[in-house]
Structure to design on (701 residues):
């Protein structure tokens, strides 16, 4: 009953916000009484401390106020009086590079599972104080105590999801789906398959296909997977990240592995699309909030993390990002279609076949980097003549240049 | 003859097509109802409305414009002074300094970016150490941000200013400056009244080039911005999920603004020219 009331209230709020969004004044969008938060937490204790929090998140990874959704950052600022300097990054690796080089001083970051493990192992993360984040109790058990942070010392889960295969029903014979991940190697779809343009995800798929873990245990396993990926090259149209939205949305490709939440977004653009998860199982990823070492406002950062776990906030984020939420109260508040979607909120049977990515030891990491660039530069058709030809052309060009210069010099002597 | 004309026109259309069709597509999709970048589903202004509510994008636009303007101003002044200094050097020294100034232009941006970042990191460490020693307690100095961004942008804008102003300086007739001195100017007056006005077009174009490069820059900013964020960085970070059509809307607005400025400037220019020509004709008629 309470949920229904809440949903009703939300709907009214949305309606109101939608009506107000029609006029352009920024003030018009601010909700009159702010977001509803759990009682018993003092959000105002830094009201006049003049604190600025540096929050570093993935791009487009927070509810930002578009289309009448909640502007989470602004709500937090209004509630607590803490200013937020909100900036964004594109990959775990660039986040890591930025922190490692000392090129930035952040208070809250949101890396993925394996990166959290790596950072924790390297002492780059601050231990969280559970007393300041009571809402962490609202995170489901399935998303806590994972191998990357077994004691929940460093992270509080923010979103999670599975990797699936998005396919176009008009181009793919549904009987072929039984091949599982192998369908991405099927010659029948040569030139119509998209593949991840990032090493961890690509090797995870190849590993699963070979019946190995998505976390390779030896250099040999990596080499096997690399062989498999090279084999796949003749079938792959291109290696993509966000271009997948356009290619699948526009019907330019038939098959693409990607994240379930994004698959839902693609399906909204193109009704011919559908998703499936191979029986071999898949990768479950968890992005979680952490505080990097060197944060100057640790307690305020913990307050931000706590705020992000508030039911209303987590709900707004889940609706905006379209990824699954680990906050236990959120699924019930989502619309029925999302809640019932077994790929967004899968049952225990599916989850038992999913693996999280773990930190790889350095030697395996570098072996994978090397194997990946090998895969990307590998060419089955043998375009080996391109480079020498270019070199000859360049030499010829500079030769012509010298010759012309010499001619001119000879002429100017007369 | 006619066939040649046809080919020439086709070539012209092709060239302008490559230049402007992408922009036209971008603007068209800023009015697209759905987030799709391939299928046009309906007309809407909502991305423009959303844009004005998206604090992160607006803030990074503000940072981009602010840094570009400040960097262009400083680089123009410093670069012009440098160009004047270089022009009065002897031939060998001038050659050497010009060659050194060329290096940042031909150097890949990524190297400039990384080396600047390393420099700032080292600088931060040194300052932290010095402060800790001075205050006798642990101090962690974090200088990354607006300051480093600005320094980096001035650095890569400087050569462009020098290479824009130097040729103009070489064209100047040194006799005019001497004449000004002969007619009673002191060197400062001669510079401001005689040299600077002749340099103005070159300085202005140097300023505009710096402004453009600075707004455009991604790589160097990426390494030196610390917790600040310029517009190109904000857009790039959207590539994991999906670049929002708000960016199309923003690009469309920027394109229209710049187009208007260029058209207005051209109109003013041609009006001035027409007036001059009319004045000249009137003069001739009187004679």
């Amino acid at each position: 009953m309470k949920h229904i009331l809440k949903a009703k209230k939300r709907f009214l709020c949305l309606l109101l916000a939608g009506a107000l969004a029609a006029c352009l004044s920024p003030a018009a969008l601010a909700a009159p009484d702010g977001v509803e938060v759990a009682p018993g937490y003092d959000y105002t204790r830094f009201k006049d401390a003049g604190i600025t929090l540096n929050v570093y998140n993935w791009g487009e990874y927070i509810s930002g106020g578009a289309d009448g959704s909640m502007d989470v950052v602004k709500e937090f600022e209004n509630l607590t009086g803490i200013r937020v300097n909100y900036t964004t990054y594109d990959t775990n690796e660039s986040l890591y590079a930025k922190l490692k080089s000392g090129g930035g001083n952040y208070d809250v970051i949101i890396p993925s599972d394996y990166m959290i493990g790596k950072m924790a192992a390297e002492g780059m993360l601050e231990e969280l104080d559970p007393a300041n984040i009571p809402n962490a109790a609202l995170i489901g058990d399935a998303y806590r105590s994972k191998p990357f942070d077994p004691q929940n010392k460093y992270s509080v889960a923010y979103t999670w999801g599975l990797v699936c295969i998005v396919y176009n029903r008009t181009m793919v014979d549904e009987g072929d789906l039984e091949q599982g991940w192998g369908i991405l190697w099927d010659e029948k779809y040569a030139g119509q398959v998209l593949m991840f343009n990032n090493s961890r995800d690509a090797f995870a798929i190849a590993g699963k296909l070979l019946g190995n873990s998505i976390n390779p245990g030896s250099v040999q396993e990596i080499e096997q997977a690399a062989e498999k990926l090279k084999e796949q090259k003749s079938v792959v149209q291109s290696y993509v990240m966000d271009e997948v939205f356009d290619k699948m949305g526009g019907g330019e490709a038939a098959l693409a592995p990607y994240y379930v939440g994004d698959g839902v977004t693609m399906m909204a653009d193109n009704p011919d699309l559908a998703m499936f998860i191979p029986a071999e199982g898949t990768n479950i990823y968890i992005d979680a909030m952490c505080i990097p070492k060197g944060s100057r406002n640790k307690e305020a950062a913990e307050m931000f993390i706590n705020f992000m776990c508030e039911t209303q906030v987590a709900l707004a984020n889940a609706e905006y990002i379209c990824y699954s939420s680990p906050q236990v109260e959120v699924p019930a508040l989502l619309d029925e279609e999302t809640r019932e979607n077994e790929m967004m909120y899968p049952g225990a049977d599916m989850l038992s076949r999913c693996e999280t990515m773990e930190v790889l030891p350095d030697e395996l990491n570098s072996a994978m980097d090397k194997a990946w660039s090998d895969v990307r530069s590998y060419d089955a058709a043998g375009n080996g003549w391109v480079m020498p030809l270019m070199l000859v052309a360049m030499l010829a060009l500079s030769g012509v240049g010298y010759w012309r210069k010499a001619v001119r010099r000879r002429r100017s002597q007369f | 003859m006619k066939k040649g004309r046809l080919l020439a026109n086709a070539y012209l259309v092709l060239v302008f097509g490559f230049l402007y069709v992408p922009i036209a597509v971008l603007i068209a999709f800023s009015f697209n109802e759905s987030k799709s970048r391939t299928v046009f589903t309906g007309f809407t202004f909502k991305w423009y409305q959303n844009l004005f509510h998206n604090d992160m994008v607006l803030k990074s636009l503000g940072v981009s414009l602010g840094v570009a303007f400040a960097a262009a101003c400083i680089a123009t002044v410093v670069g012009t002074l440098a160009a004047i200094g270089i022009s009065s050097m002897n031939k060998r020294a001038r050659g050497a300094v010009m060659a050194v100034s060329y290096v940042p232009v031909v150097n890949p941006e990524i190297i400039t970016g990384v080396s600047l970042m390393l420099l700032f990191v080292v600088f931060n460490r040194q300052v932290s150490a010095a402060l800790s020693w001075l205050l006798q307690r642990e101090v962690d100095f974090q200088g990354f941000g607006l300051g480093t961004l600005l320094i980096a942008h001035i650095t890569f804008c400087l050569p462009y200013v020098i290479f824009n102003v130097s040729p103009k300086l070489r064209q100047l007739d040194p006799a005019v400056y001497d004449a000004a001195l002969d007619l009673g100017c002191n060197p400062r007056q001669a510079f401001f009244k005689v040299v600077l006005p002749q340099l103005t077009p070159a300085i202005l174009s140097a300023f505009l080039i710096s402004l453009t490069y600075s707004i455009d820059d991604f790589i160097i900013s990426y390494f030196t911005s610390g917790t600040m964020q310029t517009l190109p960085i904000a857009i790039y970070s959207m590539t994991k999920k999906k670049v929002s059509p708000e960016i199309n809307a923003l690009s469309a607005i920027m394109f229209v603004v710049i187009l208007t400025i260029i058209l207005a400037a051209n109109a003013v220019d041609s009006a001035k020219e027409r007036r001059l020509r009319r004045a000249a004709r009137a003069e001739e008629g009187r004679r």
Notes: The radius of gyration of chain B is 25 Å. The mean pLDDT of chain B is 89.
